[in-house]
């Protein structure tokens, strides 16, 4: 089975009816399937963890890394 170029698997999950209702409501509000809503929420949780790990890096080190990555780029005003 393929989904946007990614291999997918089917996984049976047991959740409370209350959680199912919350997911259903969220999916409807965002105009997506419950499955898509669950997957998006899981992916976001992993992205958040990756971002939180940066919080322990000193700001000065982050600024140095940003400057290094931007070296050679220029800003063009329009």
Counting copies of identical and different chains, the oligomeric state is single chain
What pattern of helices and strands is seen along the backbone?
EEHHH
Shape: elongated
SSE class: mainly alpha
Biggest sheet strand order reads 1-2
Structural topology:
Layout: E1 2-3, E2 6-7, H1 17-29, H2 34-54, H3 59-70
Antiparallel strand pairs: 1-2
Helix pairs in contact: 1-2
Describe this structure in words.
By secondary structure, this protein is mainly alpha-helical. The chain has 3 helices and 2 strands, in the order ββααα. The chain has helices spanning 17-29, 34-54, 59-70; strands at residues 2-3, 6-7. It has a two-stranded antiparallel sheet. It is elongated. The model has no long low-confidence stretch (mean pLDDT 81).
Quick structural gist:
The protein is mainly α and 78 residues long. It has helices at residues 17-29, 34-54, 59-70; strands spanning 2-3, 6-7.
What keyword list fits this structure?
78 residues, elongated, two-stranded antiparallel sheet, mainly alpha
């Amino acid at each position: 089975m393929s989904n946007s170029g990614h291999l997918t698997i089917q996984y049976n999950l047991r959740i409370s009816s209350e959680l199912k209702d919350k997911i259903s409501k969220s999916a409807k509000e965002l105009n997506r399937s419950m499955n898509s809503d669950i997957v998006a929420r899981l992916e976001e949780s992993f992205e958040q963890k990756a971002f939180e790990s940066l919080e322990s890096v000193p700001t000065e080190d982050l600024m140095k890394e940003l400057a290094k990555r931007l070296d050679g780029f220029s800003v063009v005003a329009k």
